[in-house]
Amino acid sequence: MPVAIVVGGARRIGAAIVRGLADEGYDVGFTYHTSQSAAEKLSATLLAAGRKVSTARCDITDPDALTHALHELSSVLGHAHVVISCAGVFPPAAAVQDLTEQHMTEAFRANTLPLLTIARQYRLQCYEYQQSGRIVVIGSLGAREIWRDRAAYNVSKAALMTLAHSLARSLAPQISINTVAPGAIAQPLERRDTDSSLVDVSRIPMQRYGEAADVVDAVRYFARCSPYITGQTIVVDGGYGLVR
Question: What is the domain-level CATH number for residue 74?
Answer without folding.
Answer: 3.40.50.720
